[in-house]
Amino acid sequence: MATRLLQNFNGGHALIVTAAPGSEGALVATLAKLGVSAEYPPLVDGRADVAVGELKSDRDILFVDGDLEGAVELPIDPETRLAPIPVIGLVGVEAPSRLKALVNLGASAFLRKPVHGGAVYASLFMGINQFLMRSDLSNRIQDLEARRRSRRAVISATLTVMRETGLDEDQAYSRLRRESMRSRLSLEHYCEMLLSEQRLAPDRPGCSESLPLPGRRPEAL
């Protein structure tokens, strides 16, 4: 299912990191017209005073002046290169090193300085929706990885049942499915628990004969 694109930014909250608040152009005035409040986090020893732990991805947007060096430090996901919230770079000097620094900070859109009102909506649209789509893609990949790891447990449990009962592959798989349904667990979770019990009691013979769950008495099928 495709990520739903956000088109209305009313209720958003922008944090604008710059050394000269108000000098970036029409940014704040245009954000206000779009229903987005704005504030300038103070710089303390060249570093923006941003409470990272309080940022909310469904509300906050960070604008960072690319002419500042090391003004913001955010936890960046090593795989997606995403920050906790959408980041939009304010670009003055288009030096590759400064653009790279903004990308490494998680920027998914840019605005040229001085900011013209007509460019703000497009930048918000691109920056926020790129953030949402990449976040959604990351979540899907993580879900697929978790399912792939779970399927390995199903295969291992099926082979164990085949080895210890003499059943063929289809019969062993069906047996695991019946027991997982009886236990009101997903097949993957049931197989993980079965293998975990085997690891805890590796010397118990025929432990798959009755497919017991940890903490429960074995019941013959």
From TrEMBL:
Signal peptide: none annotated. It holds the Pfam family ANTAR. It comes from the Bacteria. Residues 134-195 form the ANTAR domain. SUPFAM superfamilies: CheY-like (SSF52172). One of its GO terms (molecular function) is RNA binding. This is ANTAR domain-containing protein.
